[in-house]
Each structure stands twice: as structure tokens, then as C-alpha cells.
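TICKET: design request
STATUS: open
ATTACHED STRUCTURE:
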């Protein structure tokens, strides 16, 4: 187990959970998002602290109404969160030992003591969703029996107006509360049953539907992988058989060539030419055709690779050529600008030397770029 799982809920959400929690709805309603629900085992489900979902809702509504009367909220929003569901799975080892009922009874009483019996509306234990699934590491596991517990989130807190109390899920389900609750629950289970409830496994941020979908996907992937492996084994066996046939034909051809050389030298006595079967010849030819095809594909790939390299080199050469042309053009423009600046600087030095009395006037004309006066 990782921990007890708390979930906030509005009044509309509580009534919507009837499809999942009410026994009659579980047996008759179609549950496409929960394909592992076995309705033949729904009769094995049972209630703690109430006898039906209607009674559990009534207990919760009565508590919320009473607290709101004693401690009216400042404002009531339409989507106000007035309930919390606690999902409490039973450790698999206790189920195997036949102690699941005792576990749920004891932990329900623990919640009543921890949260206040008046705030715990009731619980329903589901045994009809136990099924095998494939975990993320590929191992086959069995899901756990679990309980859904409805509570009214009564809390005490401080705000700008001072000490306050009432139905408030935000101040009830604080991080510090969840941490301390799970620590106390783990200590209680350890003391009562001798096992750790919180195994410190990181809970996955997935819904039940997402976890089931992942398990289904894993099953399909493994099945397909096994099919591919079988196909590969079959292909390897076929190739090995063909290679053996090819080797036999090659040996017989070599024997025939040796016999032919002997006949050419007049050595015909004791000559024996073994007969190759038609199946061996066909298999050898098939292997030879496969090798030719592999060679052809390899040659074609080499040609395409060479063409790609040539295109890349041509593109690089063109890019270098364009770059050099741009640099040459820029160089020419810079030279022309430098030439003009040099002429202007020499003219300025000449005027400064010969006519110092007009230097200031010349500077003013140059600064304001008055072309008419410069002329």
C-alpha cells in the first residue's frame, strides 16, 4: 500500500458517485469505464456504519446541515466542497489470511476516533473489483479489496476574523494533516496486525481507468512481442535450413568439380558422383537469390549515399561561392567609402593648414551637412 487516498467532493459529486457505490446501480448499470467489475460478486460487498448508500448520504447531509447551522459559512458557493471520500485498500496479505473484514472494521473505528464519529457517514467495502493485472514492471499482480468512506470535512482554523470552525475541505485536507494521518494509520495497522501499511511506494498520479488502460496496453505489447519473437524464430529456422541445403549443394559441386578434373586427367576408375535432390537444389538457389538481392540492395544504398554526398558537396561549394561574392561586393563598397573619407580628410587638413581662419566655419558647415554652402 502507499497510503489512504483522500478525494474532495461537492454535493453533486457525492450524488454522482451513486452509480459506483450503490449496490443496485452496480448490478444493473453498464460500467464501460470499469470492465473489471464482476457483478456476480457484488452481493459479497458490504456496508460499515450504515446499511445503504442512501443512508450514508443522509448521515453526511445531516452532519453538514447541523454544522452549517451552528457555524454558518461566510458565503456559500454553488460548487462548495462539503465532502471527502477516503479510499482505503486492504493489504493483500491480510486478505489471503482471511482478515480483510477485521481490517476494515478496525480502520473504520480508527477513522471515527481520529475524525469524530459524527463526521464519518459510513463505508462500503468492494470485493467485486478484485482482478489480476500486469504491473509497470511486467509482473502479474492481484488488485486489493478496498473501502470507500464518506466523511464531512469538519475543521478548525484561524483567519483574519479569528478562531473559526465548520465544514471546510481546504482547511481539513491540509498537507500536514494528510502526512500525520497516514503516519498514525500506519502505526495503528502495525500495532494491530503486525505489518506496515505505508510501504513508502510513490503513488502514481493516475486514475483507476488510466491504470487499467496501462495494464491492458502492457498486455497487448507483450503479446505482440511474443508473436514477433515466434515469427523471428521461425524465420531463423527457415534460413538455417536453407543455409544447410546451400552448404550441401556447394560440397557436392566441389566434389563434381574434383571428379571433372580427374576425368580430364584420365582418372575415371572409382569415380562416384553423388545425386543432389531437387529440393536441395531449389533451396540453394533460393538462398543464392536472397544473397543476390541483399547485394543489390546494398549496392543501391551505396549509390544513393554517394549521390547524397555529392549533392551536399555541391551545395557547400555553392554556399562558399555566394559567400565569397558577397564578401567581394562588400569589400569594394568599403574601399569606395574609405576613398571618399580619405579625400575628405585630406581636404580638411589642407584647409586647416592654409586657411585656419575658416576652420570653424567649415566645421559648422560639415556638421549640419549643408550641401549648398559647401559648394
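STATUS: resolved
RESOLUTION: sequence designed for all positions
ATTACHED SEQUENCE:
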Amino acid at each position: 500500500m502507499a497510503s489512504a487516498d483522500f478525494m474532495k467532493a461537492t454535493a453533486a459529486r457525492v450524488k454522482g458517485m451513486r452509480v459506483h457505490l450503490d449496490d443496485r446501480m452496480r448490478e444493473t448499470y453498464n460500467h464501460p469505464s470499469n470492465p473489471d467489475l464482476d457483478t456476480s460478486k457484488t452481493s459479497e460487498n458490504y456496508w460499515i456504519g450504515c446499511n445503504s448508500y442512501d443512508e450514508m448520504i443522509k448521515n453526511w447531509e445531516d452532519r453538514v446541515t447541523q454544522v452549517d447551522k451552528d457555524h454558518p459559512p461566510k458565503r456559500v458557493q454553488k460548487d462548495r466542497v462539503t465532502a471527502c471520500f477516503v479510499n482505503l485498500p486492504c493489504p493483500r496479505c491480510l486478505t489471503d489470511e482471511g482478515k480483510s473484514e477485521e481490517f476494515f472494521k478496525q480502520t473504520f473505528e480508527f477513522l471515527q476516533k481520529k475524525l469524530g464519529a459524527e463526521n464519518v457517514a459510513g463505508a462500503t467495502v468492494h470485493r467485486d473489483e478484485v482482478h489480476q493485472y500486469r504491473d509497470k514492471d511486467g509482473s502479474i499482480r492481484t488488485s486489493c479489496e478496498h473501502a470507500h468512506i464518506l466523511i464531512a470535512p469538519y475543521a478548525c482554523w484561524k483567519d483574519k476574523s479569528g478562531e473559526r470552525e465548520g465544514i471546510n475541505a481546504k482547511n481539513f485536507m491540509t498537507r500536514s494533516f494528510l502526512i500525520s494521518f497516514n503516519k498514525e494509520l500506519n502505526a495503528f495497522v502495525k500495532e494491530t496486525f503486525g505489518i506496515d501499511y505505508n510501504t513508502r511506494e510513490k503513488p502514481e498520479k493516475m486514475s483507476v481507468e488510466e491504470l487499467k488502460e496501462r495494464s491492458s496496453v502492457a498486455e497487448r505489447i507483450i503479446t505482440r512481442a511474443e508473436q514477433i519473437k515466434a515469427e523471428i524464430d521461425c524465420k531463423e529456422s527457415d534460413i538455417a535450413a536453407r543455409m544447410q541445403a546451400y552448404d550441401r549443394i556447394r560440397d557436392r559441386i566441389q566434389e563434381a568439380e574434383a571428379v571433372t578434373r580427374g576425368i580430364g586427367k584420365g582418372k575415371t576408375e572409382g569415380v562416384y558422383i553423388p545425386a543432389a535432390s531437387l529440393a536441395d537444389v531449389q533451396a540453394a538457389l533460393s538462398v543464392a537469390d536472397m544473397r543476390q538481392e541483399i547485394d543489390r540492395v546494398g549496392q543501391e544504398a551505396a549509390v544513393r549515399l554517394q549521390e547524397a554526398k555529392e549533392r551536399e558537396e555541391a551545395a557547400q561549394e555553392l554556399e562558399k561561392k555566394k559567400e565569397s561574392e558577397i564578401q567581394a561586393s562588400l569589400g569594394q563598397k568599403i574601399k569606395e567609402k574609405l576613398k571618399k573619407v580619405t579625400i575628405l580628410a585630406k581636404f580638411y587638413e589642407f584647409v586647416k593648414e592654409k586657411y585656419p581662419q575658416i576652420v570653424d566655419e567649415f566645421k559648422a558647415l560639415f556638421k549640419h551637412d549643408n550641401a549648398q554652402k559647401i559648394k
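CLOSING REMARK: The longest strand covers residues 81-89. The CA atoms of residues 153 and 169 lie 5 Å apart.
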